[in-house]
Design brief:
CATH architecture of the largest domain: 3-Layer(aba) Sandwich
Distance between the termini: 6 Å
CATH class of the largest domain: Alpha Beta
CATH topology of the largest domain: Cobalt-precorrin-4 Transmethylase, domain 1
Radius of gyration: 21 Å
CATH superfamily of the largest domain: 4-hydroxy-3-methylbut-2-enyl diphosphate reductase, catalytic domain
Structural class: alpha/beta
Strand order of the largest sheet: 1-12-10-11
């Protein structure tokens, strides 16, 4: 079977950088010294298990982590005040994605100038939880239906300065709808509305390439973890164009589908930013052997 792997599939540069840093650190420290990651380094259970096999532990709380230990900040970033506290207690290795770190700095800069911060994204996502800690006044918009209510609540204020940004793996349609609505409302209220496009270009490019490939293939397999925001977004974008799309996390998931491959000649495989290369290669190898 012919397998097309979409361009930009797999780990994004930020995750590659984080992996290089943590594996290099593991190689260069005393074998007895432990490395702890506070929360999932990336949203992928298979990769977390892989790190565990290397002796790199993922922890959800810090009760078991002794002060002075080597503690890793996940790629999504963490709350600003929590980070300051952790730096005083642990040896901190900050692996926040550079693009997320940039958004944190943008928010902090505008907050210091008195801006109200509007973030489009998922309020419970770890990245967004970290981002809001850099703002003084903010709201998080997850759905377009929330936009009118937020504007109405802010309508009591005139001469308001507003910054609109997005979660780096956020939905562009939501982001642009929010911009349009605030600019339209703000023009009549004396609001100053500024925008920073903070959506990661890699996720957008991957989605675009995968969509282009749909006309060449019989079926598409999106490889990622259900925890992953960008994997879910990628699957939904492809599924909106064709029913012939499957969401899998591993080769085992693929086999459990018990599909009839005889009806297909060409398949597409596209992985999220948090899908390890070894998972994608295993799936591609299996499909090519059919």
């Amino acid at each position: 079977m012919q397998v097309i792997v979409a361009k930009y599939s797999g780990f994004c540069p930020g995750v590659v950088q984080a992996e290089d840093a943590i594996l290099s650190t593991k190689e260069n420290i005393n074998r007895k010294e432990k490395i702890y990651i506070y929360g999932y380094l990336i949203h992928n259970h298979t990769y977390i298990d892989y790190l565990s096999s290397l002796g790199i532990a993922t922890v959800e709380d810090l009760e078991s982590v002794e002060p002075g230990s080597l503690l890793v900040v996940r790629t999504h970033g963490i709350d600003r005040k929590l980070e300051e506290k952790l730096r005083a207690q642990y040896t901190l290795l900050d692996l926040t994605c550079p693009k997320v770190k940039r958004v944190q700095k943008i928010i902090q800069s505008y907050a210091q100038k008195g801006y109200f911060i509007v973030i489009t994204g998922k309020p419970e996502h770890p990245e967004v939880k970290g981002l809001v800690s850099y703002a003084d006044r903010f709201t998080v918009i997850e759905k377009e239906s929330q936009i009118p209510q937020v504007i109405q609540e802010l309508s009591k204020e005139s001469n308001l300065s507003i910054l609109i940004i997005s979660q780096t793996t956020g939905d562009r349609t939501l982001f642009e709808s929010t911009i349009d609505a605030f600019q339209e409302a703000g023009s009549g209220k004396g609001w100053k509305v500024e925008v920073h496009d903070t959506i990661c270009s890699i996720t957008a490019l991957r989605e675009r390439e995968a969509l282009k490939n749909l006309e060449k293939v019989d079926v598409t397999f999106v490889v990622g973890d259900r925890l992953s925001s960008n994997a879910t977004k990628l699957y939904n974008a492809l599924r909106s164009q064709t029913p012939h799309v499957y969401f899998i996390g591993s080769l085992e998931d693929l086999k459990e589908l018990k599909l009839d491959y005889s009806r297909w000649n060409t398949v597409q495989v596209v992985s999220s930013s948090s899908t390890p290369d070894f998972v994608e290669k295993e799936i591609v190898s299996y499909l090519e052997g059919l």
